[in-house]
Amino acid sequence: MAKRTDVSRYHHNGTDNSMEHYSSSTWYYVTFEVESKDRMELEVSGSEYGMLAEGDKGKLTFQGTRYLGFVRI
Question: pLDDT grade, residue 57 (50/70/90)?
């Protein structure tokens, strides 16, 4: 299992002399290696990302490219 994040930053211009501001969004991805030794990268929530550690072993549940859950064994 490997983990990565993707952060996008946005610049927002103010209207009518209002102040401009910045915001960001973060996406979380985990690469799982399945029994066939194939690897698949799935997007997970931030809380799931924080709970998963590289080297974890368990049962992955997914539907297509949608992550549904992971249970450690």
Answer: very high
